Amino acid sequence: MKTNKLIKWSVLLLIITLPMVNYAQKEQRKGMLKEKIETQKIAYITNKLALTATEAQQFWPVYNEFSDKNEELLKAFRKNNLEDRDVNVETISDKEAMDMADEQIIHAQKILDLRKKYHAEFKKVLPAKKLLKLYQTERDFKKFLLKEIKERRDNRKMR
Amino acid sequence: MENKNDILSEIKKIAPGLTAVEKKNSFETPADYFDDLSADIQERIRMKSSQNQKKVITLFRYPQIAIAASVIVILVIGFFYLDNLKQKQYAENNTIYWDEILNDNSLIDKVEEYQLIDAYIELTANEKLNDNKALLNESEEIENELANDIFTEI
Question: Complex ipTM, two decimals?
Answer without folding.
Answer: 0.76
